[in-house]
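If you are new to this repository, start here. Below is one unmodified record pulled from the training split, so you can see the exact layout before writing a loader.
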Amino acid sequence: MVKIGNIELSDFPLLLAPMEDVSDPPFRAVCKKNGADLMYTEFISSEGLIRDAAKSVQKLDIFEYERPIGIQLFGSDINSMREAGRIADYANPDLIDINYGCPVKQVACKGAGAALLQDIPKMVEMTSEIVKIATRPVTVKTRLGWDDNTKNVVEVAERLQDIGIQALTIHGRTRSQMYKGDADWTLIGEIKNNSRITIPIFGNGDVTSPEKAKAMKDRYGVDGIMIGRASIGYPWIFNEIKHFLKTGTHLAPPTIADRVSVCKEHLDFSMRWKSNHAGIVEMRRHYTNYFKGLPHFKELRLKLVTTYSYDEIISILNEVQNKYSEVSVIDN
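And here is the target side for that same chain:
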């Protein structure tokens, strides 16, 4: 059993990564149903939260069936992050996570996310302030370092553990890599096997199949794995990994009917949570992923991403199911 503070997880938990414009409640619902053990909200701007910005506040929405779930925060100002931590704590998640890994310009170039890897003392102070005010475990997600010349995550892990974080997730790339090249898990394994480290260490990056998950587990000894992009349009990956780790065999892949059914569930929840119009628009980014690999899908995809009619979308999805019912294997 893996424990994050008082949170008890399975022996090798699978975490759903916080992804901006992806990890909302509708997406989390289908991932939870398909085996995700611990999930996070989309990352939330500390400045937006303390100014009561509607978009930031809405991201605090969590539901009982999602537990355990963490609220993830990012920001560059220590005072703002402390206050945002209080607001997040009041929203009653199971844990609070701090993002020191986001590489995108809009975040990192404003001194937040992965930018804090260039200022470890500030990162430590910011984290310490949130640990002090939180009534629940505080965790961190970060990267190997800013670039190849500053892979300082070993120091980061030790110093953050010393001031009270309860778990650390490490993405196996530097900020300068963004999402390019292969993730390097070597330092992740080094931290996990560091005798000073006693908190759970979760690895993240390039786990796109049950075989890769097993290889990372066996080679680096991490306590669990966080899965991000591989789950978009394919929430089945969580249960597939669990089954493979337990039995060494593969679950049957989802059928077209399975894909259509989960896509409809996702759409329905999206409309309930965001309003009919917004829910329909938000789902457009997911259709390609749910039906990735289908031959000659372009025309149906175009219909899905241009209509505002729920009934028409359902009709198109039924057409997808009927047209491709004989397709047994889809590339993911």
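Two things worth knowing about this chain: The chain has a mean pLDDT of 94. DSSP finds 14 helices and eleven strands in the chain.
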